[in-house]
Amino acid sequence: MTPAQRATAWFFLVMALLFTLQSVLGGATQHYRADLSSFFGINLAGAFPFNLVRTWHLQLAIFWVAVSYLGAGIFIAPMISGREPRGQKWLAYGLLGALVIVVAGSLLGELLAIHGASDSIWFALQGFEYLDLGRFWQVLLTLGLFSWVALLFRVLRGRLAVEHRGNMPWLFFFAALAIPAFYAVGLLAHPRANFTSTDFWHFWVVHLWVEDFLELFTTLMVAYLFVLLGVVAEAIALRLIYLEVILYSAGGVIGTMHHLYFSGTPVEHMALGAFFSAAEVIPLTFLTVEAWTFLRLGIVQGEQSTKPFPHRWAIMFLMAVGFWNFLGAGIFGFLINLPIVSYYEIGTALTANHGHASMMGVYGMLAAGLALFALRYLMPAARIAAGIQAFGGSRAEPAPGWPHDDARRFHLGLSLVVLLVGDCIVGAVALRNHGLAEFGILGLAAALVTRALARGLAAFARGGRRA
What parts of the sequence cross the membrane (predicted)? Predict the structure, then answer.
């Protein structure tokens, strides 16, 4: 473990905190759809109105995923190069500190803007979805991302000098470089410029950056993890990477036009956007099948190893990336991207369905998987077991199924608590807004759903223990 790799533990801690905050804000956003005036008697909207909570929810989705990606890149780079230059740890800490300043400053600026205390587009709010933050914070974030690429280059420089530019170390570096390069394109969108031009550059970030270049980095990270773990040959990983590059170049780039149907662009945008958006599910299907075969190959080879494979649950998250890429981005995207459908459904729950399933399903699952991969090195099982014993636990050595059996029991209990709380909230709302008979029907339905989910969770836990 290098010093910079140990420093990434703080990245993953910040990632977890931001994800928790984003989840809480998402719950508040959904509550506002049912009751805009109060939060069960508390005037939450007075301090945190709906548009502020939703803005923060979207911004934090970018921030917590980005923090995980940056930490994972810093963690994996020494594994690729076999070395780490001096001072890398302090540069990593500096990058993390800068990210925290950007997150806090942008959220504060949005709070001031929505409460009418500031109208600055530089320090408060621009008003673009996913680019709500002020331009000053946007510039700082772009510079921070380029600084991250510079940190990676410091580590990879020796390895890159002896590698062909078509091999995986260079592809890893190019994929990392594309993240700040195409995020910087968002600076061409200006809230006081022509709407057609502004919307065009805005959706370069929303679609082309998120759904193409983050996808490419996602594939590189998944493939490299398997190569580094020694369960997949580099030639197989390269084949998957180049397949994604070809398919996304054919469909994803032109498919960006489905965001531009009604913003004043030429009619060709509607024709090309409609076709490639409808056809985008085809390359996603190919990629999902290929990725699934790739992942299964890694799991089978890992199981055949004589040594215990410590990254099983990290791989499960990576498999979830492929599934949600197909369902969330492909199927749910296809349902809303045709022009006649998009005209009527924009802003409805179908848009949120596609956004959540693809953003959390693909990038969120990868962020969690990368964190799990790194934490298995940063927090070995024996060290955690010793810590448990020091605080009064009875287990000096980890049990054979640790930590997965404990994690299953924890998530089972947590899920049941969430279901119980959800039932109470549904019951309170139903009792307030419906008659006694309707309340009884809703209560029965909630009880049946809770029972079914509880049985499913219990069966999952039993199956995990048998495995």
Answer: 56-78, 90-116, 136-156, 168-193, 213-233, 240-262, 274-295, 315-340, 360-379, 412-433, 439-461
